[in-house]
């Protein structure tokens, strides 16, 4: 087995551990069920996702199953022409050795803050770079909120976003720092629960707690079709990054309740597989075009333009989100 003191091994270990956690713990139905129960208690059963599971779209259920059974990494093998496969083949089993005998709480705090900050920047870039938006818009295509559409992410974006975080994390942290003890696993479960609740019918700003973490109200603003809300609240878990980098936005409760979400370019008549395949093709085409015309596309990168809802909203057909 390769030595863990190499950057390459740390990268593989971080990346492999991320996906193994998803398959084993984070995306198990128990966490989803917990979120469904919390939402039902908070908003009442009639308004909850639990009472309206039949209305959850096929794409939400499909992408939930993709993440539940860890199929993103298999699709990543194909999408990267085997690069990710070679990485895993050469360093198979490295992640298993990352659980240490002792766990340092200060290292864990630094680790989670760093990963959340990198997640913020990936999310922000996904709204700015047209190629990344072609994948990320899948998540924003949901016409309404329910807990299951928290899983609505293109499988290839799942691989790209985690690599975006894994590369610098492998360079900055020693293996034992990025290790996963029982306390860390509990933390990750809570973070995933928070992510599910952000897409629920709960519309609370969480009061004083919302000054630290991303509340459902904050994330609802992020999905809003209101131009005043575009490019706001990119944070995944902690709202501090939005406040620090000038993308924070809040709104009164009546405005939160009136928020509409969704995109016009989601073809609901197409099958899920066809929709995801077309999205991937657009991603490849846009990325290739940007690479060939690098200097010509810099202005477009700075201000990507995306299709937004028009009918019945009085909004322009193209707007930056």
Total beta strands: 2
Give the percentage of residues in beta strands: under 5%
Are there runs of 5+ residues with pLDDT below 50, and where? 1-5, 89-103, 174-180, 301-321
Task: Provide the structure class.
Answer: mainly alpha
Shape: globular
Give, in order, the helices and strands.
HHHHHHHHHHHHHHEE
Report the average pLDDT across residues: 76
Q: CA-to-CA gap between the ends? A: 46 Å
Roughly what percent helix? 55-70%
Q: Treating each run of at least 4 consecutive H or I residues as one helix, how many helices?
A: 14
- Largest sheet, if any? 2 strands, antiparallel
Cross-sheet strand order for the largest sheet = 1-2
What is the radius of gyration? 20 Å
Description:
There is one protein chain. The protein has 321 residues and is mainly alpha-helical. Helices cover 57% and strands 1% of the residues. It has 14 helices and two strands, in the order ααααααααααααααββ. The protein has helices at 7-26, 29-43, 58-68, 71-79, 83-90, 105-128, 130-140, 155-172, 182-198, 216-223, 240-245, 253-257, 272-292, 294-302, and strands at 306-307, 318-319. It has a two-stranded antiparallel sheet. The longest helix has 24 residues, at 105-128.
Write a brief structural summary.
With 321 residues, this protein is an all-alpha fold.
Describe how the helices and strands are arranged.
Layout: H1 7-26, H2 29-43, H3 58-68, H4 71-79, H5 83-90, H6 105-128, H7 130-140, H8 155-172, H9 182-198, H10 216-223, H11 240-245, H12 253-257, H13 272-292, H14 294-302, E1 306-307, E2 318-319
């Amino acid at each position: 087995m390769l030595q863990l003191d190499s950057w390459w091994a740390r990268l593989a270990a971080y990346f492999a551990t991320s996906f193994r956690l998803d398959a084993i713990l984070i995306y198990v139905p128990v966490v989803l069920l917990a979120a469904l129960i919390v939402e039902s208690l908070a908003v009442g059963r009639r308004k909850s996702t639990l009472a309206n599971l039949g209305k959850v779209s096929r794409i939400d259920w499909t992408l939930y199953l993709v993440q539940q059974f860890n199929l993103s990494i298999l699709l990543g093998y194909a999408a990267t022409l085997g690069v990710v496969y070679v990485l895993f083949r050469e360093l198979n089993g490295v992640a298993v050795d990352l659980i240490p005998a002792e766990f340092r709480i200060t290292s864990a705090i630094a680790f989670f803050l760093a990963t959340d900050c990198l997640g913020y920047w990936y999310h922000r870039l996904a709204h700015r770079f047209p190629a990344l938006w072609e994948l990320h818009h899948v998540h924003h295509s949901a016409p309404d909120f329910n807990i299951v559409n928290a899983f609505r992410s293109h499988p290839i974006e799942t691989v790209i976003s985690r690599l975006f975080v894994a590369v610098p994390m492998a360079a900055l942290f020693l293996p034992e720092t990025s290790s996963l003890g029982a306390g860390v696993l509990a933390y990750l479960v809570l973070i995933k629960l928070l992510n599910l609740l952000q897409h629920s019918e709960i519309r609370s700003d969480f009061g004083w707690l919302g000054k630290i973490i991303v509340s459902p109200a904050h994330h609802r603003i992020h999905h809003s079709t209101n131009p005043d809300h575009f490019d706001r609240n990119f944070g995944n878990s902690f709202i501090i990054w939005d406040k620090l980098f000038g993308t924070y936005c809040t709104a009164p409760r009546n405005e939160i309740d009136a928020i509409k979400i969704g995109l016009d370019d989601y073809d609901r008549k197409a099958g899920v597989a066809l929709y995801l395949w077309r999205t991937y093709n657009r991603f490849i085409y846009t990325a290739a075009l940007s690479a060939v015309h690098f200097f010509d596309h810099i202005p477009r990168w700075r201000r990507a333009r995306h299709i937004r809802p028009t009918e019945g909203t009085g909004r322009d057909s193209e707007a930056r989100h």
